[in-house]
């Protein structure tokens, strides 16, 4: 008797590979129109490679006081609470790297920017906390 509820092994392999590729495609450089979270190490590489590109902007979405206490060198501060009011001042064709303390606020900003038509928005996974944990540079002031 044939078990009609069991998937053939080949179908399982194809399904697994498809899901794996879909997940891996959510990183920069894979042509994904909806980029998402990137590691602090990848963010540091991106900053190094794009530092001279005027269309590349690092945005710290924490409060002014949090920003002053320590931020990624070259970042600008736009508090997540006011970003919706300031989004028209940003170029939707630019490349943005956003972060907050741990990822909560930047996730909301990431969604807001994507919904507003920004196509190149990257979010640092774990925020500046993860950045600092990896020993990456922080500016004060």
Explain this structure:
This protein has 141 residues and is of the alpha/beta class. It contains six helices and five strands, in the order H-E-H-E-H-E-H-E-H-E-H. It has helices at residues 9-24, 40-50, 64-69, 83-86, 104-115, 127-133, and strands at residues 37-38, 56-60, 76-77, 95-99, 120-124. A five-stranded parallel sheet has the order 1-5-4-2-3. Strand 4, helix 5 and strand 5 (120-124) form a beta-alpha-beta unit. The longest helix has 16 residues, at 9-24. Residues 1-5 and 7-34 have low confidence and may be disordered.
What is the fold's blueprint, element by element?
Layout: H1 9-24, E1 37-38, H2 40-50, E2 56-60, H3 64-69, E3 76-77, H4 83-86, E4 95-99, H5 104-115, E5 120-124, H6 127-133
Parallel strand pairs: 1-5, 2-3, 2-4, 4-5
Strand content: 5-15%
Please tell me the overall pLDDT.
82
Backbone CA Rg = 19 Å
Overall 3D form: globular
Structural class: alpha/beta
Number of discrete helical segments: 6
Short description:
With 141 residues, the chain is α/β, with parallel strands linked by helices. The chain contains six helices and five strands; from the N terminus they run H-E-H-E-H-E-H-E-H-E-H.
């Amino acid at each position: 008797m044939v078990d009609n509820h069991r998937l053939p092994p080949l179908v399982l392999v194809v399904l697994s590979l498809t899901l794996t590729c879909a997940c891996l495609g959510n990183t920069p450089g894979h042509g994904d129109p909806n980029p998402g979270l990137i590691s602090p190490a990848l963010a540091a590489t991106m900053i190094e490679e794009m530092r001279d590109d005027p269309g590349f902007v690092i945005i710290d979405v924490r409060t002014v006081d949090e920003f002053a206490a320590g931020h990624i060198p070259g970042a600008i501060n736009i508090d997540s609470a006011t970003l919706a009011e300031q989004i028209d001042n940003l170029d939707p064709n630019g490349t943005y790297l956003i972060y907050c303390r741990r990822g909560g606020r930047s996730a909301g900003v990431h969604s807001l920017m994507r919904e507003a038509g920004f196509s190149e928005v990257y979010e640092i996974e774990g925020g500046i906390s993860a950045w600092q944990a990896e020993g990456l540079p922080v500016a004060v002031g």
